[in-house]
Structures are given as structure tokens and as C-alpha cells.
Amino acid sequence: MRSDFWRNNIVLLTALFILAPVGLIVWQSFLTDAFFSARARPTADAYSFVLSDPGFRDALKNTIILSVGMVVIAVPLGSLLAFLMVRTDMPGRKWIEPAIFLPLFMSPMVLAFGYIVSIGPSGFWSVWWQQTIGVPFWNVYSMPMLVLVVALTHVPHVYIYVATALRTVPSDLEEAARVAGGSPLTVALRVTLPLVWPSIAVSAVLVAFLGFELFGLPYVLGDQDGRLVLATYLYKFNTLLGRPAYQLMAVVVIFIMLATLPLVMLQRRMLRSAQRYSTIGGKATRAHLVPFGPWKWVALAGVLVWLYAVVLLPLSGVALRSLVTTWGPLVSIRDVLTFDNYHKLAELPLIRRSIVNTLLLAFIGGFASLCVYVLIGLASHRSQARGTRALDFLVLLPRAMPGIVAGLVVFWIFLFVPVLKPWVSSLVAMWVAYTLVWLPFGLRLVSNSLGQVGRELEEAAHVTGAGQARVARDVILPLAKHGLLAAWLLAFLLYAREYSTGIFLMGQGNEVMGTMLVSLWNGGNIDVASSLAVVNTLVIAGGIALALRLGVRLDA
Amino acid sequence: MPELVVENIHLKYGAIEVLKGASFAVEKGQIAALLGPSGSGKTTLLRTVAGLERAYKGRVSVSGKQVFDGDRKLDLPAEKRGLGFVFQSYALWPNRTVFDNVAYGLRLRKVADAEVRRKVGDVLEVLGLGHLHTRYPSQLSGGQQQRVAIARSLAYDPAVLLLDEPLSNLDAKLRDEARAFLKELITREERAAVIVTHDQIEALAIADTIVLLNGGVIAQEGSPEDLYNRPRTLFTADFIGNNVRLTGKVVAAGDGFATLDCGGLRVTGRMGQPKRPGEEATAICRMDRLALAGAGEPDTVEMHRATSMFLGEKWEHVYRLGDHSLRVLTEGAVASDTSPIRIPRESVWVF
Amino acid sequence: MTILKKPAIGRAFWAVIAMAMPVAGLAQIPEGYPAEYADILAVAEAEGSVVIYANTEHAAVEAILADFQKAFPKIRADYIEIKAADLFSRVSSEAAADALKADVVWSSAMDLQYQMVEDGVAAEYASPEKGAIPEWASYGDRIYGTTYEPVVMVYNSKVVADDQMPRTHAGLASWLTENRDTMKGKVATYDPERSGLGFFAVNEDAKHSDDLWPLVTAFGAVDTKFYTATGTMLEKISAGEHAIGYNIVGPYAYLRAERDPNVKVVVPQDFTVVLSRLAIVTEQARHPNAARVFLDYLLSHRGQSVIGNAAHLFAIRPDVEGKATIAGLTAEHGDRLKPVAIGPHLLDAIQPMERLAFFRKWADALKAGK
């Protein structure tokens, strides 16, 4: 408790780690050109340019619609899914569980492209529909469809929060209500729902927030109609004025930060009260399931429809694309079927390297990031000091930076800070950028699992004579092991799908799959891109399966 | 020199002053009980002594060595104070066996392995846990867990043992046993112990000194007998023992005694503070001293019997007069509906 | 992750090493090169590698790198692919920090490449191959065009019949207007605002002919879809989602047409803008001699043959034969081909005010068609 020295140092370092990039962005936003350029002069013109741009207003409007749409659709569905999975005797729960997490970790680019191939205007599901039923009623590029796709793919986010909360609600509360004569539905609405309400609220804020930083799905699906959201609007400034206009991008980033911060703070507030709720119940005993009778088949059908929409539809699209040279209503699949795309994959040495690098970065880098998060988590663990509470707030800032911006800023920092310069465009810099981008997410997971260790268990070690470090080593870490393992797995999965952060930090030999995917695809080599996407998805699915096998709970 | 000296501890949680100058001392081989209602700051005080809470003013010394001094900014962390602490929840590390739980303090002190085995073996033997070395805490009963927690805090020979409600998680029967065991153990091992409890019976039974806390200050400190028989404040009088509380007007005062008229019920008791006739006052009567009066006994009140219950050894009767009701124990059944009840003035305090 | 020395020191170091070695028998200097080239080659081989930042897709460049490796086995080519705008960001940042890793920067964003010359990133180097490429394809011994890529139209022959497909800008404009109902949503091109290449190409169109503006109005009429990436456009044209792609960069279009017989390429018959991938050797190059050797290889007969016939990027050397070459194209399309000459005027394309003015005009023309 007393040796605040190391704590303060870690807090300071973390603050620097976060504030340096943010500070650089703020500074850049007040210049006329790149901060390192001789042409740069101080000005606030970038702000007036962005604020007066009608494109900015459109992007903001689209972003808000997406955000709200996601909350309205994903939150009820995610909560319902969690209830069905955790509390009812719906059949097939064991098989469904790993599939639920897939949309979370599939590259949004891959998802979006999969949708185009499967239900786009020439998509093979659309063609089938046209041949058997009639003109498809949907347009995959329309705003309502975008809202729907984005919302459905964010159902797992809600699921994770609500399922975790549901597991801690003692089932005797429900049983008591059922004994008193409540039907399963009434019990769910009157007893269970109020108990997990805080978690649902937290997930709603989270989803609204994620809506603000959406990139991949709107980037691909909104491309052809120029339908931009804030994060894609920002990229327009890469080309709009000829040379990349960093100052305009910086302004948009600052705006995203300002717009999302209240949301994040609201989430923190709610989370704190949600935790108060969940600790009352303590660790769950084996829950007794609500028998659902014949309704369980209806529920199963509903879940399968959702899984079909978010996993099977896009995946089948990508998988099919990887086996053909072309597609659409004008060709017969049999004529174009080929395994060439996979052969090409095997032929390019670069691809193999990118797979190895991705695994390395995800596995070892994920672990290293976890160590950093644990260190920061321990520094702020049970601390009431003002510095550490400020840190609480600070760590949320990187969340508002789109990956590519974070990557660019980390690149600049490595480039212009002399001691770091030798490390630029190495895997180390890449890892630093990843660590920064996922800091808020990872740290929250870590501090959650650290917080689950009983305070008295730590104090007992202190009184027995263990200093801060020993307590961490002997008590906190061993007891938080499961939560930390889950955090490592999440880091692995997130790093494996990451695509934008590394663009500026790539050097010879450190290509990663996500970035390769995007460049292959932009370059028109969609044959190889889709077979690589299938491989990428298999790696991620393998990660999830392995983790579940090892007993790591993603929603713990 | 007492083994543990705690002086004038002040502590705040945010803006709320939780401890407002608590002091006490414990000699070797003695047990002090921190007693008080919930929210009185007793656990906070104990945790402050252990170094788990941070006071902003006051002094603590252990075995003659200062471990905390608010003025000198001296504040040793918990691990440097060399105390034993038994948590209310026992706080046994679930991932370690009984042996490893108990051995932890010794290992931290870099004691040689053979010595660790010997010492842990001894202390587990003393606590009757000799056969449980390799068990995990989850495989133990509540009583066993409590003893492991005590063993853990004793293993590295701390001079001062702090216990936070150590008996509250045990069932009634175990609690009586554990209480006697604990008292004997501490006396024999010659530690200075501080035990936090909200149960006055427990405090009275186990402690050599009781420190009664109320709202962050010490209401009274003394031997159990002292507190029971010579309460200095209304709070103490009321908190210790099983009491009836009567409020009324003083009708007569003198000689250290005052008589109150409480809506028709007259009661006389020792004055805890000077009272004059006409003043409002409160009388605290020890319930267990009430009895049916024999003929001609002083301090009696005629009351009406509302109900009687047979408790096995004794009978309990509820007597009423106006709004007041008193419980009286007798050896046998009572036939009459009204009786004179004796409220002996030595067992009544007026404040 | 090696700690890099100041380039000057590095250069001196390699020079010393090279001089200490017997020059003769080290490597075969290419035919027709001056005798001093043996020195460059020897030092280049001592440098051991060349770092290339480029935006040419890996799959296309694989053949070039493999052949370079075969020609100069002692020089390893480290190839880093980055999208054009990001490439510029990366190079200009690294150069400003005096930490440029690239020895060669090779990009199809002609305007941004020239900006690098302007910013002093490019080193002066007179390639012995300079005389073998057209005169307009290099400037001031600092920047060299390496390819000759026509900007073409693409169509899906299952959607638009071969004899219907217009072959000129004006023809496309009127045909689209006539078929505005069937062509609704069926045309794809770059979004000039969000694609640097898209702007550059369409801006060149505007310079060559006023026919562009009626065409843009026709685009508005058929609710044209605007893209940022070539890949997506070609994919959707191939799938029949779109029928016509306008201003697609030649190599990508031909590659796609080769794999999918439904995709057909039209080299416009009124005028065809021709772009080139420009290469520079950097001033801060850590491996300056290897960089020169790589640049010379790109321009050499051997390199150009690979560029034209294996990578399908269209050779710029008139003496290279094959379909994807300047010779092949010129034979077929003659002086309708309008290559963009290299020079300071390239910078006009990245003047913010001019661009914004263009976008306004573009938006107005689009709206007029709606």
C-alpha cells in the first residue's frame, strides 16, 4: 500500500505512452501541414475547414444513425441470446457457443466482402433467391442494411457482458419466482432482467461507442455510394487535397475523441455500479436452467437464423470466392471452380511469412501486451491516489483513435524520438502500436480479473510480510490466472485480425495477414485475398476452439 | 511497556472522519477487545494498527518500536510491521494447501526449509490441525479454516496478534469452544492480542480489557467488570448487558441515586451524572437482575403479567405497566396476574 | 532491427570495402554500360541489399524481384508494399527524421513521386539506361518512368454486347445517356476525392478533351458508383454487378481480363491517358549503389522484358517486344496514346485550390445529369 514509488512511475509512463500520441494529434491539428514539414505554420483553419464541410455533417449523421441502430438492435438481441445460452435448456448450446464469438474476431473487411459475394446484387444467395422466389427485397449497400449488418455483428459484444452477469445471478432467485407461480417469461422479465440491467446498460453504451469508431464494414459496404462515417471520412483527407492532409485527419480524430469521451465515462460509471451488483451474488453455483418446453426449439431456430446471418452468410461468400476465379449470375460455378487460389497462396513466400508473423505477433506480442496491461493494472489496483484515478480516464483516449491513425502516430513517435528511432519499422514498433490501440480494452479485462481477487486475500499476504511485488506474484496473479488467460486469448484473436494499425510500421519481413489481406484486395488480387481470408478465419476459429477446449472462458 | 500502544488515531474516508482520536494499549499475554456497534470504527481501527488503512494523525508502536507516527510521517507498510492478522473471512489462499498457507510467512522471512517444516508442524499440532497439512482450504470445515487462519498468523511469531471478528463465521456451539481455545492459546503463547467483535458477550468472556468504541471515539475502556458494573456513559451502560431503557422525569435525587418517574413506573438508580429533580433522564436497567419481589423488599413496582413462557431451565414472564414491559425470569411458574417487580437500584444507571 | 549508421559513414565504409576487393571477376557488368559501372556494382554487392518502398502489388512484382535476384544474386531486394498515399506519408516522414529506410521509392502516384523530387528526397543519378527510354519519361536525372500503363475502359461482355460497347469518351457519354435506365448503377469508376490515382487520371482526361464533362454528366444520369480501390471495381464488373468500368489502370484490367473471359478491355480510340510508375533513388539511401543497380535493372532490356511480359505492367522501352509494351500499344493505337510527361507540372495535380475547384466542377456536372 505504501510503496507508491513504482506505482507512480508506472502511472507516469502509462500517461506518457498515451499522452504523447494524443498530444501529437492535438498539435498536428493546429498546423497547416505535416508537423515535420518546413511548410507547417500554426493555424486553426483545419477546424473551420472540417466543421464547414457538408461531408463532415453527413458522416456525423451516418455515424449517429449507425450507433443508435446498433444499440436498438444489438442490445435486445444480445441480451436475449445471453439469456437463452446461460439460463434456459435450449438445445445445442455447447455447439453454438464458439460460433457466437466468431463475428467478434473476423476482420470486418472480410465480413463485408463476404456479404457482397453472398447477398450483393450478383451474390450467389441473391441469385438463388431470384431464381426461386423473386427479386431480392434487400440492397446490401443501403443504409438500413448497413445498420442491420453492423448491429447483428455486434450482438456478441452485448452477449459477453450480459452472459457474464447472468452467470453470477443465483438461480434460486428465479426458482423462488417460479415456485411462486411465474411463467418462464415473467420470471425472465421480472426477476432476471432487473438483476442484469446494469450490465445491459453498460453494453449498450459500449455498443454505441463502438458505433463511433466503426471502420471496416462501412468502408467496404459504403464505398460505392460514398456513404462515409467519421472513421472513413477521415481517410478522405489522405487524398482530397493531393498530399495527405494530416491536420484535417487530426481534427476528425479529436472530434471522435470528444464525442466518445462522455460515452466512455458513462460506461465507466455504470460499470462500477454493475460490479457492485455482481459481487453481491458472488461466484455462481451451478445454475438450474429454466425449462423452456417446446419454445426451446423456437429459440434455437432464432439463434440459428442469427448465426446464419452473421457467420454463414459472409463466410460462405468468402469461402466460395476462394474456390472460383469469378462469380455472379453470368457464370456457372462449375466452369470456374478451382483450387488455384490456394496453390497461389502456397506459392507466394510472402504469404507464408505473413501467416507466421501474424501468429508470432498475436501469440507472443499478445502475451507481452498482456504483461504491460497487468503491470498497469497492478499499479492502479486498489489505489485511491489521484494519479491512478486520472489514469483510469486517460487509458480510454486511445480507443477514439482509429487504428491507422494510431499506427501513423506511433510511427512518428518512433521516428522523431531519437532513442526510439532505431526501432522504427520493426516488429517492436508494431507491437507498441497494437498495445496502444488495444490498451483500453485489454486493461479493462485485466483490471476486472485482478478485481475479482478478494481484497482480504491480498491483505493477508501483506500482513504476513509480503511486499507489493510478492503479493502480486504470490496471490493476485495466481488467483487471477483464468481471467488473464482469457485476456491473452482475446489479445491473440484481436491481433490476428488487426489490419490497419501496422501499415506505417511494416518493414521487410514483418508483414501480417490482416494488412496483406487489404493490400491484396485493393490491388485486385481478390483470388488470393479470399483464400487468405479463409486461412485467417480458420486460424481465428482454431484459436477460439483451442481456448474453449482449455477451459478459457471468453465471457468471464 | 505494553506490547502494543495505539495513541490518538485519526482517520478519514474522503471527508468523513471515521476515527477521531482512538487510543489503547495491550500488554503481553493480554487480550483487548475492540467492541462497538457497527459503524463505530472498530474494524477500521484494527486495520489501521495493521497498516491496512492510512491514518493521518496519531501513533502506533509495536514491541516498543514506532510503526506509525502521523506527525513524523512515519508509516511502515503492513508487511514491515510484523503483526499477525486473522481476517473475518479467514482469507486463506485457496490455491495453497494448509501447510503452504501457514508456511508462507516463514518462507517470506527466508527461513530454512527444515525449520519451516518444524515450525509449521508445531503450530498446526498446537491448533489440532496436524492431520490436514495437504488439504486445500475449500476442503476444510469453518472451524478448521478459522484455526488455519490463526495458525498462519502465529507461525512467524508475531508479538501482536490482531483478530477481526474471528468467531463470527462459526456456528453457536463451535463459537463457545473456539472462544475458550483462543483465550487459552493467547495467554499460553504470550502474545498481545486485539480482537474486534460486535458481540459484547464474546468481549466480556475473552478480553482482559475492553475498548468500547462509539462513532470513532473511545466511549470507555477498562476491564469487562468495570464496563459492566461501572459504566460512565449512557452509551456504555446501554451497550453492555441486556437492558431495559426507560425515560422519564427525575423526581428525587441525592446520595448518588436518583428516582425517575417513567409514566407511572418509578425506578431508582445510580446517577451516572448529576441530576436535579424535574430534569429529563434515562434509566438503564440490567434485565437479568429483575426479579419478583419478596415482601418488604425495596425498589419494587407493581406490574401486570401479560404472558409467560417455559424455557426449559426457567420461566420467562412479560410484565406490563402502561407502555412499559419488562421481562422477568423465575425458577418456577407464577400463578398471580399482578406482582411486585424488584428493580434493584445497584443495577440501574441514570443518565 | 539493426542500428543504422549515418548514410555517409555507411557509404564510405562500403567504398573502402569495395576498393579493398579485386574489381575484376566480381560481377558481369551489363552490356553497353561504362567501365566505371563495375565499381558501382562491386559496392552494390558489398552493400548486399536494396530496400524498395512501392505500391505495386506483390503478386505482380514477384516476377520482377525473382528475375532481379537471378541477375544480381548478391543483392537482396527487400520489397515493402504500401498504398500510394500512405507510401508518401511514410517516405516524407522518414526523410524528415533523417531515417529514410528506402533506397528506391517506386510508385504509380506520379504527382506525389514528383513532390518527393521537389522535397529533395530524390538523389541525382544519371542511369546508363536513360537513353533507352523515351525522353519525356525522366526528369533531371532524378526520376524515371518505368512502365507505360494505359488508362482503359473495362466492360463485362455478358452484360454489354461487344458491338454495343462505345470506344470513345464522347461515345460512352452518349451511349450511357441513351441507355440510362438499363445502365442505372451499372457503371463504376474511381472517386476522385477519395482516390489519388482516380483524380490524377480524370484530371488528365480533362486536360486532353472537353469530352470529359458531358461524360461526367452521363455518369450522374446513370447513378455511377465511385470507388477507392481498383480491386473492388474489377471484381464487381467480373461478377456482373457492374457492366462498365471507366478509367481503370491498364495492367489490372488486362490481368483480370486474362483470368475472366467475360471481362473485356477497351483502349479508348479518341485518346488514352498513359501513366507510368516512377522510380527514384533516395538521397538518404543506405544502399545507394544497390539502389542504382535496381533502378538500372528496372530500365534495362532484361528488366523491361519482365515488366512487360511477365508482370504485365507494360514496358516503357521501345526496344522490348510483346503485347504489354509501349511498342505493342503504339503499334495498335499510335498517337492516340497520351503519356503523361514527367516534370514539375505534375505538381499542379496536388494544388489544393485547383483540386477543390475541380471537385466543384465535377459535382456540378454530376448533378446536371441527375
TrEMBL record, chain A:
A Gene Ontology biological process term: transmembrane transport
Membrane topology: Multi-pass membrane protein
Keywords, ordered alphabetically: Cell inner membrane, Cell membrane, Membrane, Transmembrane, Transmembrane helix, Transport
Gene Ontology CC entries for this record: plasma membrane
Domain ABC transmembrane type-1: 60-267, 355-547
Superkingdom, taxonomy of origin: Bacteria
Keyword Cell inner membrane: yes
TM annotation in the entry: 64-86, 98-120, 140-166, 187-212, 245-266, 297-320, 355-379, 391-417, 423-446, 475-496, 528-552
Subcellular location: Cell inner membrane; Cell membrane
UniProt family annotation: Belongs to the binding-protein-dependent transport system permease family.
Protein name: Iron ABC transporter permease
From TrEMBL, chain B:
A Pfam entry, by short name: ABC_tran
SMART domains: AAA (SM00382)
One GO term (biological process): quaternary ammonium group transport
Name of the protein this chain belongs to: ABC transporter ATP-binding protein
Cited SUPFAM superfamilies: P-loop containing nucleoside triphosphate hydrolases
InterPro entries documented for this protein: AAA+_ATPase (IPR003593), ABC_SmlMolc_Importer (IPR050093), ABC_transporter-like_ATP-bd (IPR003439), ABC_transporter-like_CS (IPR017871), ABC_transpr_FbpC (IPR015853), P-loop_NTPase (IPR027417)
Species annotation: Falsigemmobacter faecalis
Domain ABC transporter: 4-240
Keyword annotations: ATP-binding, Cell membrane, Ion transport, Iron, Iron transport, Membrane, Nucleotide-binding, Transport
GO terms for MF: ABC-type ferric iron transporter activity; ATP binding; ATP hydrolysis activity
Automatic annotation (TrEMBL), chain C:
Domain of life: Bacteria
Signal peptide positions on this chain: 1-20
Record flagged with keyword Signal: yes
One Pfam short name: SBP_bac_11
GO cellular component: outer membrane-bounded periplasmic space
Keywords: Signal
Name the record gives this protein: ABC transporter substrate-binding protein
Organism of this sequence: Falsigemmobacter faecalis
